[in-house]
Prior knowledge:
6 strands; two-stranded antiparallel sheet; 5 helices; elongated; alpha+beta
Amino acid sequence: HKRTGLESVYRTKAIILDIEKKDDHKKKKSQVEVIKLIDEVYSKFPDELRKSVIYTAYTGGGGQIAIAFSRPLEKDKAREVYEKLRNYLMHVENIDPASFNIAGCQRLIGTTNMKYNVQTFLLWTNPRPVPVDIEAFLQTVYEEEKAINELANEIESTHEKEITLHRLNREIIRKIKRRVSFIDLFNEIGVQ
């Protein structure tokens, strides 16, 4: 039974990231292992995301990091923000990609994870989170995407110019070779 249901998603005010080692997420981890794993992931977050963390939790095979948004997001906006967050955090290892599915449910903290027969619990709560300003975040992401696209276009244009210049140079050299004969060169420099 999958824990999904897009038809029941109306809005969301946060994202819960499932933190786990990709290669051994089926193995129960100690609290210390999970704290280290969460710290590794957290340390790679940009400042605005670090400040917006509501809590971290232990789930048995890994953990959770919950990030607050500045306002509730309707389904379509949530989908867009989750997608942008996925791209924004793609360099960070050990975040389960399923975390970015707005219809995916995460484990409820305080319940028993039957897979490992372990009680889930909070590791840390932020007494004063600064929720991610959605509009500012999206504006930053769009500006970064625009800059990347412009750079890619510039690189492509430069590459095309180099190819064209290389072709022109080869053609010019061929024309010069056709016009100049060795006999003319020898006569010019006085070689007999």
